[in-house]
């Protein structure tokens, strides 16, 4: 397997060296790993190939734009450009699709490979995050080609890993993840200040989080959910991206094994699904989604179809409890 990754590392590095212009994308409604992997890839290329034109694109997130701001692009910017897409499992989730079939696409990701949309697909589901994968890519290049990593890239990679592991609390935190994190904090950035900024939220979002605790409901033993309507979001002045940041707040509920946020986005309902045991990415795939075994996303057409999803989730949790003799 390592040899396979090394071959992909070589292919990607060759394309980067060949390209004069590189445009880097990530997924819609970005989280810290999306920002971290995208920004670190930018820094990694720019510090080692300063003559290249490198651009990051995508809608900025109010809570994360302190890291960097993306550029506005038009279709002409993609002429002869190499396109790299980080932390994005499937094509529809790419933020910004102004590239054409003439552009060479590189996918770098850690989600289950259901959609290999890239001309090169570097996908490793064993790592905690796309940021950890990019650090592995850098390590290989450093040993073979003396490629450098700067402080800003290290900061972004650390942030991405912290975000996707829930500050190293989630089961995707491995010995290797902790080793990588220990290497990154040797670089010159203020770790405490960075983590504090990650926790800063607006007063509107703080009040909305109180709404989460007040309004969540238990569907059946082991399953909880929260419906968030457009009226709810308007009342608290929050958007769907901000709402999604609170999905793990229910994690501490006693006896909970799987839960979801259902967010009304007008023509569809976006569902954020989380688990503390049952594998839920297959459930997400049934409802036009996917993701990780314990953290996935799905889409339903309306509230009635959400009931179907909750029924399936309840069955999944019931099976998990029986299989593991949990009462």
Automatic annotation (TrEMBL):
DHHA1 domain: residues covered: 223-317
Taxonomy, superkingdom: Bacteria
Domain DDH: 21-161
A Pfam family per the record: DHH
GO molecular function per UniProt: nucleic acid binding
Name of the featured protein: Bifunctional oligoribonuclease/PAP phosphatase NrnA
Organism field: Gemella morbillorum
Lineage, uppermost ranks: Bacteria, Bacillati, Bacillota, Bacilli, Bacillales
């Amino acid at each position: 397997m390592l040899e396979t990754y090394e071959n992909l590392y070589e292919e990607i590095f060759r394309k980067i060296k060949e390209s004069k212009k590189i445009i880097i994308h990530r997924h819609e409604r970005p989280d810290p790993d999306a920002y971290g992997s995208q920004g670190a890839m930018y820094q990694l290329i720019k510090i080692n190939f300063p003559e290249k034109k490198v651009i990051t694109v995508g809608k900025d997130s109010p809570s994360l734009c302190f890291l960097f701001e993306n550029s506005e692009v038009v279709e002409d910017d993609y002429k002869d450009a190499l396109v790299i897409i980080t932390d994005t499992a499937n094509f529809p989730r790419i933020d910004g699709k102004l590239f054409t079939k003439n552009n060479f696409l590189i996918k770098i990701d850690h989600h289950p490979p259901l959609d290999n949309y890239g001309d090169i697909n570097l996908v490793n589901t064993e790592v905690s995050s796309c940021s950890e994968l990019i650090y592995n890519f850098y390590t290989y290049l450093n040993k073979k080609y003396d490629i450098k990593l700067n402080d800003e890239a290290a900061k972004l990679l650390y942030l991405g890993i912290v975000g996707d592991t829930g500050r190293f609390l989630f089961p995707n935190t491995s010995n290797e993840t902790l080793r990588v994190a220990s290497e990154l904090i040797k670089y010159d950035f203020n770790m405490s200040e960075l983590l504090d900024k990650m926790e800063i939220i607006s007063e509107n979002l703080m009040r909305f989080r109180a709404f989460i605790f007040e309004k969540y409901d238990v569907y059946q033993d082991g399953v909880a959910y929260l419906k968030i309507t457009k009226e709810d979001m308007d009342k608290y002045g929050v958007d769907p991206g901000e709402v999604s940041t609170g999905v793990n707040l229910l994690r501490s509920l006693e006896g909970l094994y799987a839960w979801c946020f259902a967010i009304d986005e007008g023509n569809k309902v976006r569902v954020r699904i989380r688990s503390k045991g049952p594998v839920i990415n297959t459930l997400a795939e049934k409802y036009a989604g996917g993701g990780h075994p314990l953290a996935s996303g799905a889409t339903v057409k309306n509230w009635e179809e959400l009931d179907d999803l909750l029924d399936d989730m309840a069955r999944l949790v019931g099976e998990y409890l029986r299989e593991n003799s949990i009462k």
